[in-house]
């Protein structure tokens, strides 16, 4: 069986939003082969970089509020604000470190366990020819990479797992996946339940 994953799989593990996905990646059954479009690595690194910028901006604003409160010599609440915000900053930075550690671990596991689907000129051209996800070019490329790879593995059971149901559960996307013999799951829990039923 081939399980296709994409950027959200990696990011949901990094952010601690999907314990089941994290556990599955660490303990992938030998019956399941993972595959991921190479562009998902680039997209996930770009997402992490963007979030780092948001985090830096948040810390900068937090520091401004700490400095402002520290200058207030008459309010009884000023020192409380300083203390709480300083503690919030420490906790926020620790959580950011947790995210980055989980990201690094999941990324390395995917490098080891998942087959990478390269983005080729042929895939780009085929992506331009289909009328889906017109305003979501990266998602469109991800789908085309998966569909292209599925054609090379027609005899395999094929599953696509992505929590990005806003884009990937659209009727036209589901039809393209289904026509390529790919079953779609938007939750790890649902996929694992289905996987368990296959072994019974």
Task: Give a verbal description of the structure.
- The longest helix has 36 residues, at 78-113.
- Strands 3-2-1-4-5 form a five-stranded parallel β-sheet.
- The protein is built from nine helices and five strands.
- The chain is α/β, with parallel strands linked by helices and 200 residues long.
- It is 68% helix and 10% strand.
- Helix 1 (7-14) packs parallel to helix 3 (38-71) and helix 5 packs across helix 6.
- It has helices spanning 7-14, 19-26, 38-71, 78-113, 121-129, 137-152, 165-168, 171-179, 188-199; strands spanning 2-4, 33-37, 114-117, 158-161, 182-185.
What spatial order of strands do you see in the largest sheet?
3-2-1-4-5
Mean pLDDT reading:
92
Determine the structural class based on helices, strands and strand pairing.
alpha/beta
SSE string? EHHEHHEHHEHHEH
Low-confidence stretches: none
Give the number of DSSP strands.
5
Task: Write a short abstract of this structure.
By secondary structure, the protein is an alpha/beta fold.
Please write out the topology:
Layout: E1 2-4, H1 7-14, H2 19-26, E2 33-37, H3 38-71, H4 78-113, E3 114-117, H5 121-129, H6 137-152, E4 158-161, H7 165-168, H8 171-179, E5 182-185, H9 188-199
Parallel strand pairs: 1-2, 1-4, 2-3, 4-5
């Amino acid at each position: 069986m081939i399980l296709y994953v994409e950027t959200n799989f990696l990011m949901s593990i990094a952010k601690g939003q999907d314990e089941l996905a994290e556990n599955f990646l660490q303990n992938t059954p030998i019956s399941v082969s993972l595959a991921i479009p190479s562009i998902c690595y680039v997209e996930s690194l770009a997402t992490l970089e963007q979030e780092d910028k948001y985090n830096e901006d948040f810390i900068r604003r937090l520091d401004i509020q700490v400095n402002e409160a520290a200058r207030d010599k008459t309010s009884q609440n000023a020192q409380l604000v300083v203390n709480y915000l300083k503690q919030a900053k420490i906790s926020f930075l620790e959580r950011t470190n947790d995210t980055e550690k989980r990201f690094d671990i999941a990324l390395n596991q995917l490098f080891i366990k998942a087959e990478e689907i390269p983005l080729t000129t042929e895939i780009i051209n085929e992506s331009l020819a289909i009328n889906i996800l017109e305003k979501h070019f990266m998602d469109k490329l991800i789908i085309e990479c998966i569909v292209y790879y599925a054609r090379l593995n027609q005899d395999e059971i094929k599953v696509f797992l992505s929590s990005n149901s806003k884009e990937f559960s659209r009727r036209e996307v589901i039809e393209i996946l289904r026509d390529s013999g790919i079953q779609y799951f938007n939750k790890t829990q649902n996929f694992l339940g289905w996987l368990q039923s296959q072994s019974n």
